[in-house]
Design brief:
Elements (H helix, E strand, L loop, with lengths): L4 E4 L5 E6 L5 E8 L13 H8 L10 H7 L3 E6 L4 E8 L3 H13 L5 H20 L6 H9 L14 H5 L3 H11 L5 E7 L3 H12 L22 E7 L5 E7 L8 H12 L5 H9 L3 E8 L7 E8 L5 H17 L4 H18 L3 H14 L8 H6 L3 H11 L6 E7 L6
Length: 416
Amino acid sequence: MVGFERQVLKNGLRVIVHRDSSTPLAAVNVLYDVGARDENPDRTGFAHLFEHLMFEGSVNIPDFDTRLQDAGGENNAFTTNDLTNYYETLPAQNLETAFWLESDRMLSLAFSEEKLAVQKNVVIEEFRQSYLNQPYGDVWMLLRPLAYQRHPYMWPTIGKDITHIRDASMEDVKHFFKKFYHPGNAILTVSGNVEPDDVFMLAEKWFGDIPPGEPYIRNLPQEPVQTKTRYLKAEREVPFDQIFMAFPCCGRAEEAFHATDLLSDLLSNGGSSRLVQHLVKGKRILSEVNAYLTGSLDPGLFIVTGKLHEETSMEEAKEALLAELEVLKHEPVGERELQKVKNKAESSHIYSESNALAKAINLAYYELLGDPGMLDHQPELYFLQDSLRLQETAQELFHPGKASVLEYYSMKSGEQ
């Protein structure tokens, strides 16, 4: 159990503390409720750009990393389509250093044309190396706009066009910062060998005077119901053909999430999973398979993908994958197989709580979902699912007419 105490400062900053006396460390996590979905369609990639800019120093602390390292700490950050997350771990007795650093960059990030130019170049190079010049690197740049016609999930966190970052002005960047990076749009969590009262005192001391910022009312365009299969073909210099099938599915906080997640585990989690047993080891149609869901806050995608053997046609691979999904729609999952994936889900959850940083990040995430206490109830929500529920969920999910199919060909195959 991850017990916690929670307070909200007058400026809207939500503060959550978990005391863990088994570690000498403390983890400090600041989650900003802004991701790629909140970007201007003509200025994408900004949330990810700020993942870099926030380490460029603030007005009173020019060198973020050095000051944290002097206190024995380390840090990092990540961005998704839903959120941006910054975190540090450091010796618990040096906890206040993290508050000093995080509060100063929330209050007064040090902007300059030189720093902006440096980080724009870093992001543009990352765009080229990870998405344009890497085998299969542009898959999500192709699949997202195929599956999403209106919702901003249609672009990846790196952005949909390299020119959006290249042409970003200082005024654009400052406007984005002012809109999203303030206490009213943030969640601060601390986990480790700390006393909650001390943490709340430090939160008030370092964050209490920061202006709350204007409330952000999220009003994103909703994705219309998909009524027919969408296809896209791509040809690239990759070693093997690969197929990607995306089905619209629920959002992370919806009731169907846990049944949907178990379906993905049934299909591809481990060597005894269905797709591996039937299509990789059995029929040898595919060399690799995977099934997973994006787990996004707004309605997401259930992805089924397979890497083809040279003698396998794209049509054969697609039919084989759809046939496996049809089985889930029409045949109840056996109790033993269902218990196996439930056990794996429980193990995964326990592992996710294995250290102070993981708990700090998870508490912030469930606070964003609406209730940090839900962190402790995830295993029981998986164990509540039965074979009938999974079958009903599969029937909702796997309509071939709702699939978006990306056929990704190797240039050497010449099968298009």
